[in-house]
From TrEMBL:
TM spans (from-to): 12-29, 49-68, 80-97, 103-124, 145-167, 173-191, 228-246, 266-286, 293-313
GO MF entry, a single one: transmembrane transporter activity
Protein name: MFS transporter
Source organism of this protein record: Bacillus oleivorans
Ranges for domain Major facilitator superfamily (MFS) profile: 11-314
Length: 314
């Protein structure tokens, strides 16, 4: 590392504000959009499919947008053009959701699609800002700051915005949209146009190289000596399918089966995010003391048992 290269923790916190707003909006959207769709669609499967659009767009577009932003060269840098387009549009369309939900279903879906596209446009570039501004030896700490702010965003969404939702459905959408606008202006006027460490993060992120790397990685996992890696990746894959499925359907279950009001359902879901923040550091300490695999297994056994038990407690 060159000694004259700049680094600032305050700038990392500003970059974290983008991740804070991103997580806040996604968390609130995933909790309450299924309930809004319920005004028009009774089928939980169809609602779940619509909610899966963001993941489909992420899989299809984010790798290419990320690689495109690596190669882009403009007066405002390579990441900011995507933020200039994506963040204001995402904020505006998110604010519109509760208003258009009372008009017609198709207008709601149209606004929702524009919202999802806008979020997808800036998601990868805003995350890439951290390594662009951080030397390799400080990235673990910077990554911890970014993830912490993301966790705080999820908690604020479910404990703060859920209360506002109970007062007036439009309030949390308005506030979250304004926070996203604020995060955009912070980023626009703070981040470097030519970050000092950008060259170190984009050398091998071309989409063709990424695709080649993925294919080669999958081939490698077929070898007997990498069978353990295959099992670990499979476990992570299955865990995310199960957990994300529960998370996206939780408010529907709470409102339509347990008969909670919508605001209370969101508050209850907030304890999921709170538990992650509270136990992240203890889990790391336990993993260092007793081994990562035993601690992971405790969680992977306990969590399904808890989920299976919940319907029996009605």
């Amino acid at each position: 590392m060159k000694p004259n290269r700049p680094f600032s923790y305050s700038k990392i916190f500003v970059i974290g504000s983008g991740f804070f707003a991103l997580t806040l909006i996604w968390t609130f959207y995933n909790a309450y959009m299924p309930l809004i769709l319920g005004n028009y669609i009774e089928s939980k499967a169809i609602r779940g499919s619509i909610m899966g659009l963001d993941n489909l767009l992420a899989v299809l577009l984010i790798p290419f947008i990320g690689a495109w932003s690596d190669r882009m060269d403009t007066k405002i840098g390579n990441r900011l053009p995507f933020l200039v387009v994506g963040m204001p549009l995402a904020a505006l369309t998110f604010i519109l959701i509760p208003y258009v939900s009372t008009i017609t279903f198709w207008i709601l879906i149209l606004v929702d699609i524009f919202f999802l596209l806008s979020m997808t446009i800036y998601r990868a570039p805003v995350i890439a800002l951290m390594p662009d501004h951080t030397p390799s030896e400080k990235r673990s700490t910077a990554n911890g700051i970014i993830n912490f702010m993301g966790g705080v965003g999820a908690i604020v969404a479910l404990f703060g915005l859920s209360i506002l939702y109970g007062i007036d459905r439009t309030y949390p959408f308005n506030l979250a949209g304004l926070l996203l606008f604020f995060a955009f202006f912070l980023l626009f006027f703070t981040v470097d146009r030519k970050p000092a460490y950008a060259g170190k993060t984009s050398d091998s992120l071309d989409e063709s190289q990424a695709a080649h790397s993925l294919i080669e990685g999958l081939k490698t996992l077929r070898k007997p000596e990498f069978r353990g890696h295959f099992y670990i990746l499979s476990a992570i894959f299955l865990y995310f399918i199960g957990y994300t499925g529960i998370e996206s359907q939780f408010t529907i279950y709470a409102v339509e089966h347990v008969k909670m009001d919508e605001s209370t359902a969101g508050l209850t879901l907030g304890f999921f995010s709170l538990s992650f923040v509270l136990f992240a550091i203890p889990a790391g300490l336990f993993g260092s003391k007793w081994g990562k695999v035993p601690v992971m297994l405790i969680g992977l056994v306990a969590l399904p048992l808890i989920f299976i038990t919940i319907p029996l407690l009605q």
